[in-house]
Amino acid sequence: MQRLLAQTLILLLALSSTQTVFAQVVRAPGTSYSTALELSPGEHSFYLERGDTHYFSVRLDKDDTLFLLLRSAPNQDFDLALISPDRDVIELSVRAAGFTERITYTASSSGLYYIVVFPFGPSTGSYSLMLDVSKPKVNTVTTTVTSLSFVTITQRELRDVVIVLTRENTRTVTIMTQQPVDRSYELLGWSAISVAILAVAIILRDGLVKARPREEKSREQQPAETSEKKD
Prior knowledge:
This protein is α+β, with helices and mostly antiparallel strands. It has 2 domains: 34-134, Jelly Rolls (Sandwich); 138-226, no CATH class. Helix content is 28%, strand content 44%. It has a 5-stranded mixed beta sheet with strand order 1-3-8-5-6, with no helix packed on it. A 4-stranded antiparallel beta sheet has the order 2-9-4-7, with no helix packed on it. The protein has a two-stranded antiparallel sheet with strand order 10-11.
């Protein structure tokens, strides 16, 4: 029984070691743009061999803000670069040994951006790469437009009697949009005047649609009354 337990324990340790090695292989930094390791926000630790260069990637949407921090031992000098989806250098952080490298960038377009960590001179060792992505802040803006209109309804109750009714019709249209916090004068392509015009157009359209069926009905009744007068 003890022998069986010992064999089971050895097997579990072996499986655990295999999973750890596999995870380390999967998390290995890329050695080129095509093998760049895609990172999620958080803190990541790696070991940089002398003469090596590490490639990472991160997906950004337009107006996302990327924050990067690279920390290493005081006697090591690792530098940091941010590369565009077209593989052009956007930002470089090349401070002296022992200093934290920093990059902050707001994406001008959506795509896959690259992060490159490279040593200066003979530097080698462990480093920590912190990554954070901030989405643009927006405010919800509610625009309410109230319009008062009058709908005229004509009805023929008797042969020679015409009743004209005027009914007051009030409609309120509420339109909700989002606008960036730092662009208070914009309404995501819609100005306040445009929104008001749109709301009034909706109100007028609804009023015409409601009035049309009764008008058509009165037109159908008119020929019958005309024939009665001829008789």
